[in-house]
Amino acid sequence: MKKIECHIVQDLLPLYMDHVCSKPTEADVEAHLESCERCQALCEKMRMDMKAAVKTPDLDGKKMFRQAEKNILVIIAALAVVISCFVTNAGGGLAGGRANGIHLTATIFYGVFWILFLVCSRNYMPLVKFSFVIGCISFVSAAIGLLATLFSFGGFFTGILVAILVGAPFYGLRAFMDWTELYAVAAGCSLVWVIFTWRCKSRLENRLSDTLQGKTD
Predict the structure, then answer these.
(1) What is the DSSP secondary structure assignment for residue 92, as one 8-state letter?
(2) For the chain, how many helices (H) and strands (E)?
(3) Residue 23 and residue 214: Cα distance in Å, rounded?
(4) 215 CB-side CA count, 13 A
(5) Is-contact 142 166, C-beta < 8 A?
(6) What is the pLDDT of residue 69?
(7) Which of 64, 70, 99, 145 could form a disulfide with 174 if both were Cys (CB 3.0 to 4.6 A apart)?
(8) What is the pTM of this model?
(9) Can you tell me the distance from the alpha carbon of 47 to that of 159, in angstroms, rounded to the nearest whole number?
């Protein structure tokens, strides 16, 4: 059998360990490893590195799963609080009078927990799209309400629509401001909301595109 040099065996080791070299080459490498301690040690080190590389994704996967599970629980809790605050203020928004401390507290909780929902759901495309649509609806409704109060237009059904979509979430602000100011604040907050979710949506789409491009390449 022809003796092969160490540098040739070391070049062949990756192919040998992946079982993609020919049977004769595999036999030559194994014969060399039996008689060469240096190449044998290098082969063993490469095996250990491969095992470590295989184990790492499992650990990362478990960590990512725990993080995702935690985020989902926070998202569910935040949505529950947001919906509760919306319902609490719905009646006041339709009535249109001055808000009390309960309504103001509900509006504050609505804002805080909706921000929490936005932050925790920013890496989940379906939730980002849902949040973006809701933000657009809120912004358009607030803008219509602001224009209606400034220029005195809009009928009964327009008033009910705006009162439900904007008046309920932000109704607590009626404790110290009129409807025009409330709609202006609601429009500003909703616009920030729309921009944030649009950026999250674009980032996720770009990440997906890069991943698919990498697989194609």
Answers:
(1) H
(2) 8, 0
(3) 33
(4) 5
(5) yes
(6) 65
(7) 99
(8) 0.61
(9) 71
Cα(207)–Cα(26) distance, integer angstroms? 41
91, two tokens: 């009646």
Rounded mean pLDDT for each run of 10 residues along the chain, 217 residues in total:
73 78 82 85 81 52 57 81 81 73 89 86 85 87 82 62 70 86 89 92 81 55
C-alpha count within 13 angstroms, C-beta hemisphere, residue 143: 9
Closest by CA to 116, choosing from 137, 95, 131, 99, is 131
CA distance 26 to 15: 9
Q: Which pLDDT does position 52 carry in this prediction?
A: 62
**Secondary structure (DSSP) of 145-210:** HHHHHHHT---HHHHHHHIIIIIHHHGGGGGTS-HHHHHHHHHHHHHHHHHHHHHHHHHHHHHHHH
In contact, 179 and 145? CB cutoff 8 Å: yes
Contact between 37 and 64 under an 8 Å Cβ cutoff? The reply is no
Taking the C-alpha atoms of residue 156 and residue 161, their distance in angstroms, rounded to an integer, is: 9
Question: What value, to the nearest 5°, has the Cα angle with vertex 59 and ends 58 and 63?
Answer: 115
CA dist., res. 166 & res. 110, Å (int)? 12
Q: Which two tokens stand for residue 117?
A: 């929902």
Neighbour count for residue 154 (Cβ, 10 Å): 15
Residue 179 near residue 149, CB atoms below 8 Å: yes
CB atoms within 10 A of CB 183: 26
What does R_g of the chain's alpha carbons equal in angstroms? 31
